[in-house]
Amino acid sequence: MKRSSIVFILLALITFKSFGAGSITKSESSIKSLVSTTKIDESKLKEGDLIFHESVSEFSTAIQLATNSIYSHCGILVKENNRFYVLEAIQPVGKTLLADWIARGKDGKYVIKRLKEAEQLLTVSMLNKMKEVGKSFEGKDYDSWFAWSDSKIYCSELIWKIYKRAANIEIGKLEKLKDFDFSSDLAKKYVKLLYGDNLPKNETVISPISMFNSELLFTVSKN
């Protein structure tokens, strides 16, 4: 099994366990402390920007091993009442205040990327269309099995489908679960937990690192 399977299987668990129904690794007080010290120049940000970070959990480590990447979770920026939020697939899909989202990641580190042709393509009407697509996913359960259907959704799948359905833009290369690397003990552990002996090897998937490495994007901000 290759690099694609672990990523999603673990991605699901990472997001679901760390941010949703499972336990959160960071203490509530430490998160509040990070939020209070997080400095973000929001004047440089735009709706539609993508944000990536490393989740704080064992599942995140498994994803990193499977994808050879430090980024295990992502979301898309939206603006409401002059404040930026991250629309993300956790449990359930919803919006998180940007500062809170950043503080939830490891050491408060993040990278924000933008479509290279955003000025031309992401018009007000297009952004509204993207928001409508995003809204259709809000409240849906997190997809721990990384299926390509819309009944449940995982983080990179949410972003990919918003851009594809609203703007017909494909950010990142679609792969199959069989393309990922499940050779590590940690990866094997969660593959077994999720799928038993029936890994759907030909399931279509999109990983955070595939989107992060897309030639359609450029880096706007990082720390």
Summary tags:
globular, 8 strands, 41% helix, disordered N terminus, 9 helices, single chain
Mind explaining what this structure looks like?
It is a single chain. This protein is of the alpha+beta class. It contains nine helices and eight strands. It has helices at residues 3-20, 28-37, 58-67, 98-104, 118-121, 124-137, 155-167, 185-195, 208-212, and strands spanning 50-53, 73-80, 83-88, 94-97, 111-115, 175-176, 204-205, 217-222. The strands form two sheets. Strands 4-3-2-1-5-8 form a six-stranded antiparallel beta sheet. A hairpin with a 5-residue loop joins strand 3 and strand 4. Mean pLDDT is 84; it is low at 1-37.
Rounded to the nearest angstrom, the radius of gyration is 16 Å
| Secondary-structure element string | HHEHEEEHEHHHEHEHE
* Helix content range: 40-55%
The oligomeric status of these chains comes to single chain
SS-based class:
alpha+beta
How are the elements arranged and paired?
Elements (H helix, E strand, L loop, with lengths): L2 H18 L7 H10 L12 E4 L4 H10 L5 E8 L2 E6 L5 E4 H7 L6 E5 L2 H4 L2 H14 L17 H13 L7 E2 L8 H11 L8 E2 L2 H5 L4 E6 L1
Antiparallel strand pairs: 1-2, 1-5, 2-3, 3-4, 5-8, 6-7
Helix pairs in contact: 1-3, 1-8, 2-4, 6-7
Give a nutshell description of this structure.
This protein has 9 helices and 8 strands. It is α+β, with helices and mostly antiparallel strands.
